[in-house]
Design goal:
flat; single chain; NK-Lysin; disulfide bond; mainly alpha; Transcription Termination Factor Rho, Rna-binding Domain, Chain A, Domain 1
């Protein structure tokens, strides 16, 4: 009889035990939720680059670390923007200061999912998962005059266009309107 009621008596008699029991209960209830929420933050640039590389490889080459390394370096040679930054961070570019390519390539050769590889890379370099793609512009509703000059420059940069001699916002807007038909197709 004393064994079955022992824990209840302990909680009633010691205020510290009661608060510790409550804290433990709350932690055990909310910890899974916090871990799940943390896992939902994706490394979208990392996942896209690695998925593109793996999708373009033959099934027989996906287990060879050297071939994955070559394919990743080749892919990184032709990208720009956020993907180029990711490649720089992992050391897939010649100008990269450090390299964690083995930590990327080996798990991929073991058929580890891309999401898990990126999650492991997050622990090595948090910058990798901080890279996010820019939001796409809705060309039907956007008012270029309300965008910042920095955003206008970014649009031109993404298109590979320049605005030589532009110093004012209106000049950037004019240039974007000028070259927009080359890059944005209006659906009828």
């Amino acid at each position: 009889m004393s064994l079955t009621l022992g824990w209840k008596n302990c909680i009633r008699s010691h205020p510290r035990s009661r608060t510790m029991w409550t804290v433990n209960l709350l932690v055990s209830l909310f910890l899974p939720y916090l871990l799940y929420a943390r896992r939902q933050e994706s490394c979208e640039v990392c996942e896209k680059v690695l998925r593109d590389v793996m999708d373009n490889m033959a099934m027989s080459d996906r287990s060879d670390a050297n071939k994955i390394d070559e394919a990743l370096r080749e892919h990184c040679g032709g990208v720009k923007g956020k993907e180029n930054k990711f490649c720089f961070y992992i050391g897939a570019l010649p100008e990269s200061a450090t390299s964690i390519m083995s930590d990327v390539v080996k798990p991929l050769s073991w058929s580890m999912p891309v999401e898990k590889v990126c999650e492991k890379l997050r622990t090595m370099d948090s910058q990798i998962c901080e890279l996010k793609f820019d939001k796409s512009i809705d060309w039907e509703t956007v008012d270029l005059k309300k965008l910042r000059v920095k955003e206008l420059k970014k649009i031109l940069e993404n298109w590979g266009e320049e605005c030589k001699g532009c110093t004012e916002k209106s000049e950037y807007v004019t240039r974007i309107v000028e070259v927009k038909p080359k890059y944005i197709k209006n659906e009828l």
